[in-house]
Design a protein that fits this description.
- The protein contains five helices and nine strands; from the N terminus they run αααβββββαββββα.
- Strands 1, 2, 3, 4, 5, 6, 7, 8 and 9 form a nine-stranded antiparallel β-sheet that branches.
- The longest helix is centred in the last third of the chain and has 16 residues.
- The relative contact order is 0.15.
């Protein structure tokens, strides 16, 4: 009887997994390793390679220094045709990139300009990333839909796109197994 109850409880718990959890579990179990970020940058790239790649792209006029000391700026061609900026700087674990936060903003954003609203920017960023990484982003939200993210998981690489503030959309690209290990060690 005890084993039947345990089996029933396990089936119930597994049945309660969210769609996100199912996809994450499936992708991590696939063993597929995806390193591609953008502009020749990759997850697992060491710090020296990151700086060398950025330096070369800077010399070509593709990258600039961002508004803060540790920020790189790129001007992407967004699907909407609106001009915007993409600012990024990775986090390293054992001197290798495991997490790449990327902030997107529209040039000329103002709170009264509905054409450049953050929700439109989020749609633009999702379409831009679909051009880089392929389709397959899905919506994840809380119950009242006050927090919405678009997510894509390919093997070890997870991409999340969400509204950071009134004018900024954040994309986070992580090597999920490393990210989970760091979170586990921190708690």
């Amino acid at each position: 009887m005890r084993y039947i109850n345990l089996a029933f409880l396990m089936a119930l718990l597994l049945g309660c997994q969210t769609e996100y959890q199912k996809i994450e579990e499936r992708e991590l179990a696939s063993g597929k390793e995806v390193k591609e970020l953008f502009l020749g940058l990759e997850l697992g790239m060491d710090r020296k390679q990151f700086f060398e790649t950025c330096w070369e792209l800077n010399k070509e006029g593709l990258l600039n220094n961002g508004p803060t000391e540790l920020m790189v700026e790129y001007i992407p061609k967004l699907p909407s045709g609106n001009s915007g900026r993409m600012r990024f700087y990775p986090k390293f674990e054992e001197d290798k990139i495991y997490y790449m936060p990327v902030d997107f903003t529209y040039d000329g954003w103002a709170p009264w300009n509905e054409e450049l609203a953050v929700e439109k920017l989020r749609e633009d960023v999702v379409q831009y990333f679909e051009g880089l990484y392929g389709e397959g982003f899905f919506e994840v939200s809380n119950e009242d839909k006050s927090l919405i993210a678009f997510v894509k998981i390919d093997g070890n690489r997870r991409i999340r796109i969400f509204k950071k503030d009134l004018s900024t959309v954040r994309a986070e690209i992580v090597d999920l197994p490393i990210y989970k290990q760091i979170e586990k060690e921190a708690s």
